[in-house]
Each structure stands twice: as C-alpha cells, then as structure tokens.
C-alpha cells in the first residue's frame, strides 16, 4: 500500500491537479477570517463543510488521475483493481488532512476568534475536519467516469449529492412525512455541522456520533465501492 | 504435454448490446507463443485483458492453474508518458508489485540494457518517442519475470532494428519457459520463434497456422538458406501507411521513380501481397532471393 501511495503522490504532484482545489481552500479560509472576530465552533463548522466539498474535488481528481492503459498496468502490478482504488481514496484523504490542520490552526494562532479556543475544541475540530475529508473522499470515488456514461452526468449528480448532504436539515422540513427516511442514505455531514454549530448545547454522545457517523459512512462506502469495482473490473 | 497456465472456457464478452468475443476456448501452456492476428475492433485487446484478468467475461470461465498462480506481465498497446524517468517509473511499478529493493535495482538495469535504453537518462517519459515508450512498456511487463507475457501491439512505433531486437528477446524468454501472447494487426517476421497463430475475426478465434522451428538444421550449426522476396510496388501515401501499420517490421523504401521497394521473408509473402492488393496498390515486380542465413 505504501508503494501505491508513493506512486500516486508522485503522479498527483506532477499533474498539478491538486492546485485549484487546494488554493481555493487555503485562500478561502484566509479570506473568510479576514473579518474578525468569529465564533470558534461555528467557524469550524464552515471550514469543515468547505473541506468536505474540497476533498470531493481532490478525490475525484485522484480517482481519474491515470489514463486507462496506465491504470491497467498499475492494477496488474498491484494485484487487484480494488487495492488500487482503496489506495486512491486513502491518498485523497491523507492529502486533505494537512488542509484540515491548517483550517483549525490558522484562526487559532492568528487570533481570529472572539475568544481563545480551548484544547478540547481544537482536538474535536481536528477530528471533525478529518471525518468530513474522509466522507468527501469516499463519496467522490463513486462519481468516477468509469461508472458513468459521461463526465458531465457524473459531475451533475455529484453536485446534487453535495447540495442535498449540506442542505439535509432544510430538506427534512420540506419533504412529506415518510419521505424523510430518504435522508438516511445521504452522506451524514449534517451531523457534524449540527454538532459544531450547537457545540455547547449538544450532548457528548451527539458530539462523538457527529464524528463517528461520517467515518463509518465513508468506510462502508469505500468497501462497497471496492466490491463493485472488483466485480465490474475495468470494463 | 507442458504445464497449463491459463484457460478460457466458453467465454463470451459483450459491451452493451454488442458482442466482442463469442465462445472463446483457449488454453495457454508454459513456453508456448501465440500470435493473435486481426484488424481493429476484432477483439484482440479484449481477449488479452480477459487473459490478464483485467476484465471479467460476460459468461464463461477464466481458469488460472497453479499454486502460486502464474505471474502475468501485461503490456497495453501504448503507454502514456508520465512525468518521471523510465528508471523511476520501473522502480514505482516494481515496488507496487512487491519486488524486493535489492533485486529490483539490478533488474531495472538489466531491462534497460536488454531494451537498449540508458538507465541514467534524466529525460522525463513525457518527452519520450513512441518507440521509447513502447520499450518502457515492455520493460514494465517483464519486471517480475512473468510466466505469461501478454503483449498488445508490441511492435507499434518500433524501428526495424528494435523489432528484430524485441523478437530475439521474445525468443530468449520463450526458451526459459515463458508463455507469450502477442496481438498484432499483421504478420511478424519471426522465423525463429515457435508460435501458433490465431485469427481473431468478429470476436471468434480461428486457427491460422503453426510455424515449426527448423531445429535440426540450426542445432547442427549447418548454414540455413534464407529465402526472401524483393517486392516492387506502386503505392500512394495512404497505402504505405496501411502496409506499415500491418507489417511494422517491413521497411518500405521509396525509389526515384515514385515506387516502393521492400524485402519480405517467404513466410509472410502471401499475406503481404494480399494486403498490398487489397489496399489498392499495384504490384510491379517480385524477385526471389536466397542467401546464407543465421546459424
């Protein structure tokens, strides 16, 4: 796995595909905090949601990083296509982790909050960012061009999933009774946002669930994706 | 009978509504060489991917024999040039394949020497010619000393000297027991390679020929008489391109009067003439030549 990660890193760095989402995120964070003061966990709720979107963009770039023939060659050497795809999702997540650390550390170190953030808040925010990044990376793998007839189609559907995931709370209010069960299949980023927005009032169980749910959802999503791709192979 | 490596049983492959391969039954044994001939879109590449296990059959079975399973090397029809040197690329592929670092480095140097590329060359693969990329492609497929080597259009982009060199390399790997499957458009001038040819047409396989090696003559070291034909023809650019694509090892030399001249080994003459006439070329002359061959 380490060899695959090293190879993907080399390819990704030389492709420069990481540049647009990374710079948009870093500059976006700097821009948002140009206005002070800001609430601690409310601000982290924004940067974690933003990272969720950026990790989707980065993961989508990594999943389709190789040309078809090279992907055939890499999966032959790796032993299976599943292993290669798992490595791609893992690499996407690892790549976004430093972005999350930046989003947590930058406002805290440059006094952009209305008060000093506690150690607990910093650690929990780091966890929420990592969970949001994992969720984003694990969802994006499904929207590879290999599973869709066209790139436009996959991007449109991906945009819809992002919008529904972020706006799930609002959807819950407008959906007819019984239909709100549909929300359970959506990526649970709403739990993290809700926990961070209401950090002082929610229970510890809710705070932890808001971190575990995206990690769990993401892991199941990656596992199912690996099984589907293994069955489908490189058709 | 030699050891069985891979077999396909009643394999069908469909993409959407179209059938690419139908009722394919194939057995590959240690040390054998199989030439898959056929035009574009006939199913050659799909068959190679099925043998490699890269795609799944729609119906039928792919059976891998042996424990541990045979090592399969696969070279697609073309390799995309990545932003790294050939040595770096092979190092990455070797590590991914799980080759020990202490055996990987000498192997990379050995392959560079075999395929006549400089391992110290710092040029990025993005700037490699088609032929150089094809060599790197062959090198990555040979990294783990495969039991089965699957090559999709390996002669594409190679000059005559490289084609001959590749053929002699294939002969060497066949002799150590590696099974080889080569997908090509046309014929290959592989007089010294023992192979059978399957014609892939509309997704079906047909046995075309079995070429026997003249073992006795060469084993005794007595000279072998090589027969070749000098073919003069009148061709336009499109026809030249078509012939070069189908017969990558044949060099069509333009002459002053606008005609083309080339030399064809006896084994490939019939197919070359048929392709030339089918392409609309005009055959001007055909001359038989005999000369002392290799020992």
Topology:
The complex is a heterodimer of chains A (235) and B (295).
Chain A lengths: L1 H14 L3 H14 L7 H24 L4 H11 L2 H29 L9 H22 L10 H16 L1 H7 L14 H9 L6 H29 L3
Helix pairs in contact in A: 1-5, 2-3, 2-5, 3-5, 3-6, 3-9, 4-5, 5-6, 5-10, 6-10, 9-10
Chain B lengths: L3 E12 L2 E12 L3 E5 L6 H9 L6 E6 L7 E4 L10 H11 L4 H14 L15 H13 L5 E5 L7 H16 L3 E6 L10 E7 L2 E8 L3 H5 L5 E10 L2 H10 L6 E2 L5 E6 H13 L3 E11 L3
Parallel strand pairs in B: 3-7, 3-8, 5-6, 6-7
Antiparallel strand pairs in B: 1-2, 1-4, 8-9, 10-12, 10-13, 11-12
Helix pairs in contact in B: 2-3
Number of domains of chain A: 1
Beta-strand content of chain B: 25-35%
Structural class of chain A: mainly alpha
Query: What is the helix/strand order of chain A?
Result: HHHHHHHHHH
* Poorly predicted segments of chain A: none
Mean pLDDT of chain A: 87
Individual helix count of chain B: 8
CATH superfamily of the largest domain in chain B: P-loop containing nucleotide triphosphate hydrolases
The number of strands of chain B is 13
Largest sheet of chain B: 6 strands, mixed
Broad shape of chain B: globular
Helix/strand order of chain B, N-terminal first:
EEEHEEHHHEHEEEHEHEEHE
Please report the distance between the alpha carbons of the first and last residues of chain B: 28 Å
- Average of per-residue pLDDT values of chain B: 79
Q: Which architecture of the largest domain in chain B would the CATH scheme give at its second level?
A: 3-Layer(aba) Sandwich
Oligomeric organization of the protein chains: heterodimer
Q: What percent of residues of chain A are in strands?
A: under 5%
Evaluate the radius of gyration of chain A: 18 Å
Uncertain regions spanning at least 5 consecutive residues of chain B: 210-224
